[in-house]
């Protein structure tokens, strides 16, 4: 399936890096001529379109990854046809706002870990023809409605917050005398391990956490401090803030 990308910014570059990592041929991907499209074409051999109309004319799947406020206008008036798939990675933009004729519409929300083949990519609706593309950059996570997709999109912001927590933990650990790179790797891999335990164990999340929080232990002491400082409520409030912005 020939892929076209309209809007080659930071997220699209991560997706392209992931596709290359998975063995996709650069010649099967055509990029819009704005943003980082020309540079990616020069550096990696991707095809470069003269304009967005050429992308829609030549491709079976078109990823739209422009600023959300620009998205509806960018796709309007292009030569869409039946059988094509338009994949929107434009946060907060409902499918109804995209006028793409008889092309099928799909919302996706990957994260920059796509470059590592490690993106849990939100999808709605889950179109089987797009699965190979999404599986090349990670694991598709199918949602049942746009409302559910919108709420799940908050996880893309949590991805950044988790990185901020890792940075805080790594900086603190380095300040205690550990080599800064060793501290970075230690804290990052600790977060990875925590995520795997939650994702892969059959026990409930409450039971997994309870097994770590022995009375008088260090995990319990730290959690008690975080709860007393309002950390869980602040996190939930941040989620509410992001969801409100997505709903616009």
Structure, briefly:
This protein is α/β, with parallel strands linked by helices and 248 residues long. It has helices at residues 10-21, 37-44, 52-58, 71-75, 131-135, 146-175, 180-200, 205-212, 218-228, 231-247, and strands spanning 3-6, 29-31, 47-48, 61-64, 85-88, 104-109, 119-124, 138-142. The protein contains ten helices and eight strands.
Describe this structure in words.
The chain is α/β, with parallel strands linked by helices and 248 residues long. It has two domains: 3-143, NAD(P)-binding Rossmann-like Domain (Rossmann fold, 3-Layer(aba) Sandwich), CATH 3.40.50; 150-247, ProC C-terminal domain-like (ProC C-terminal domain-like fold, Orthogonal Bundle), CATH 1.10.3730. It is built from ten helices and eight strands. Strand 7, helix 5 (131-135) and strand 8 form a beta-alpha-beta unit. The radius of gyration is 21 Å and the shape is elongated.
Topology:
Layout: E1 3-6, H1 10-21, E2 29-31, H2 37-44, E3 47-48, H3 52-58, E4 61-64, H4 71-75, E5 85-88, E6 104-109, E7 119-124, H5 131-135, E8 138-142, H6 146-175, H7 180-200, H8 205-212, H9 218-228, H10 231-247
Parallel strand pairs: 1-2, 1-4, 2-3, 4-5, 5-6, 7-8
Antiparallel strand pairs: 6-7
Which terms would index this structure?
ProC C-terminal domain-like fold, eight-stranded mixed sheet, 2 domains, elongated, 248 residues, alpha/beta, Rossmann fold, 10 helices
């Amino acid at each position: 399936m020939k892929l076209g990308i309209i809007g080659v910014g930071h997220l699209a570059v991560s997706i392209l890096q992931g596709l290359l990592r998975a063995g996709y041929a650069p010649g099967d991907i055509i990029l819009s001529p704005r943003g980082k499209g020309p540079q990616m074409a020069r550096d990696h051999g991707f095809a470069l379109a003269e304009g967005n109309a050429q992308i829609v004319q030549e491709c079976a799947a078109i990823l739209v990854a422009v600023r959300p406020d620009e998205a509806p206008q960018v796709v309007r008036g292009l030569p869409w046809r039946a059988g094509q798939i338009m994949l929107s990675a434009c946060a907060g933009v409902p499918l109804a706002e995209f006028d793409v004729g008889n092309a099928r519409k799909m919302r996706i929300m990957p994260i920059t870990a796509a470059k590592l083949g490690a993106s849990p990519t939100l999808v709605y609706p889950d179109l089987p023809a797009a699965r190979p593309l999404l599986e090349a950059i990670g694991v598709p996570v199918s949602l049942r409605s746009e409302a559910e997709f919108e709420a799940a999109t908050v996880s893309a912001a949590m991805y950044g917050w988790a990185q901020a927590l890792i940075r805080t933990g790594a900086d603190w650990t380095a300040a205690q005398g550990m080599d800064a790179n060793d501290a970075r790797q230690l804290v990052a891999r600790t977060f990875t391990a925590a995520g795997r335990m939650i994702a892969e164990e059959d026990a409930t999340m409450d039971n997994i956490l309870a097994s770590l929080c022995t009375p008088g232990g260090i995990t319990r002491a730290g959690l008690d401090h975080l709860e007393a400082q309002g950390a869980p409520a602040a996190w939930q409030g941040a989620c509410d803030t992001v969801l409100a912005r997505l709903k616009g």
